[in-house]
Design a protein that fits this description.
CATH architecture: Orthogonal Bundle
CATH topology: 434 Repressor (Amino-terminal Domain)
Order of helices and strands: HHHHH
Structural class: mainly alpha
Shape: globular
Largest sheet: none
Amino acid sequence: MLTKTNTFDISEHLESDEDIREFLDESIATGNRSDFIHALNIAARAKGMTEVAHQAGVTRASLYKSLNENGNPRFETISKIVDALGCKLSITSHQ
């Protein structure tokens, strides 16, 4: 008998802006640059790519391209996406 499995998509479980903030905060605290870009992709899908693209002032296609696994977004783009997600970037010291 075959067992059917579904792919887990965390974006389906980020239901609020607070969920997205906590997810991004954890990602940047424990991951590397590519992990954070991947987390931005997940968060943007959770909020809605079209809405995030509009708020960030980029096209939807450009947003997808910037946040795909081979994407290399500029800092300005990352900053706009983070802002569109209702977050802000900050600097803290290593502990």
